[in-house]
Design brief:
This protein has 16 helices and four strands. It is mainly alpha-helical.
């Protein structure tokens, strides 16, 4: 069997096209993608500040006077009225909103314009000088306070006008406004339930425990694309080795091996082991080359290196089992079409949903979850979690998942592989 494994490794290493596809191509892509998208992933580049005009029509002083008159008409005791008015002055909803949108949390995100009239703002949005107009209407504070301290329904509403052609910026502004209204409505509901009075709590029991999580390391573009390209191109090892197996059958090499007394299942096993060895070598070369070029894995602990070795070994064994399955299909049905479809279509699909090309969680969390059920996607998640500082125990679910896939591939290969002499 060792001779068979040696033969496979030498055959592929002497094929310049295969070496180019398995090593040179991923290295080139790692360099290109790291430089092209490095700033975006590290947060050094992004969208510019979003110019937002705020039109303040609300007159709080006038609203508070009208609110006080409304309270007196309801024959509320004078002492209670004074307490309510004092509390209301400290919780003006319009002022809270302005503090939020002009606060440090949105610094660098929102470029606030408060110097424009409604007509000027509408003209500015037509000229793309502002991306959104937020209008605080008249009686906004009054309507909000009446909703808090009386049974009246709230008629307070913040108006938002956005550009249709600026979908990303519009979504950000909508998200900020939605977050504020949801939080304020929650607080409003609490105040309505308590009649506008603060809630005092004397609960002293501790329920559960507080866990402080260490800040995780961010993943750089070279780290992300080194892992992404490595797990993607490792899949090509499976199609390459299985395709060579079909060529050996077509050229009667397989038949001559059987005449020497070699057993078919040992031949199948040799293909799986060859792919495993080639995958390990491929991943090691890519990781070392990336580290030399970008210092991708510098400052990593011994535990990290052990985790990388374990993940690489499991992933390579899975590639070996997948190779055995593709080989079994090719020899059973006397066709190399499966290997061609796998390398031409399936690998591309796995690479996309597995996140090798782009972080798919930015598109859809569901897509990320689906990708984690592919061998490359699950292992990519495990690799990246280690880079972020997670412990090996944290990535075991992904390792177990891929190990289960490996067992399924082996069982399927043994079931499909022809047990009798092949013609």
């Amino acid at each position: 069997m060792l001779n068979l494994i040696k033969k496979d490794c030498l055959t592929i290493s002497r094929d310049k096209a295969e070496v180019l596809a398995l090593l040179a191509m991923p290295l080139i892509l790692i360099v290109i993608l790291s430089f092209a998208l490095g700033g975006l992933m590290s947060g050094e580049e992004g969208i510019d500040e979003i110019p937002v005009a705020v039109i303040m029509k609300n007159d709080f002083e006038n609203d508070i006077e009208n609110f006080e008159k409304a309270l007196r008409q309801e024959e509320i005791p004078e002492e209670a009225i004074q307490q309510i008015i004092m509390s209301s002055k400290e919780s003006d909803p319009a002022a809270i909103f302005m503090d939020m949108i002009a606060g440090p949390d949105l610094e660098g995100v929102i470029a606030l314009r408060t110097d424009l009239s409604k007509e000027q703002a509408e003209e500015a949005i037509k000229k793309d000088e502002v991306s959104a107009i937020i209008t605080i209407p008249e009686r906004f504070s009054y309507d909000t306070l009446m909703a808090i301290y009386s049974e009246a329904d709230s008629e307070a509403a913040i108006e938002l006008l956005v550009q249709d052609n600026e979908q990303v910026r519009a979504s950000i502004v909508k998200s900020i406004l939605t977050s504020f209204t949801e939080q304020y409505n929650l607080e409003l509901s609490i105040l309505q339930a308590t009649g506008g009075l603060p809630v005092e709590s004397e609960i002293t029991d501790t329920f559960g425990e507080i866990t402080y999580l260490a800040a995780q390391r961010t993943v750089s573009a070279p780290q992300y694309y080194t892992i992404g390209m490595a797990v993607m191109f490792a899949l090509y090892v499976a199609s390459t080795v299985s395709s060579n197996a079909f060529k050996e059958k077509s050229s009667h090499v397989f038949a001559r091996l059987m005449l020497t007394g070699e057993r078919p299942l040992r031949y199948l096993l040799s293909k799986g082991i060859s792919a495993t060895v080639l995958s390990i070598l491929q991943l090691m070369i890519l990781f070392v080359a990336s580290n030399l070029a970008f210092q991708t894995f510098n400052d990593m602990s011994l535990e990290f290196l052990v985790g990388m070795v374990i993940i690489t070994l499991i992933f390579s064994l899975t590639i070996g089992s997948l190779t055995a399955l593709l080989t079994a299909v090719a020899l059973q049905f006397n066709s190399d079409a499966v290997s061609g479809v796998f390398s031409g279509i399936i690998v591309s699909g796995f690479a996309f949903i597995g996140g090798s090309m782009i972080p798919v969680e930015q598109i859809s969390p569901l897509l990320r979850e689906i990708g984690n059920w592919t061998p490359n996607g699950a292992m990519m998640t495990a690799y990246l979690q280690l880079i972020q500082g997670f412990q090996l125990n944290d990535v075991l679910p992904m390792i177990y998942r891929v190990a289960a896939m490996m067992i399924i591939f082996i069982i399927a290969a043994l079931a499909i592989f022809p047990k009798r002499r092949l013609s």
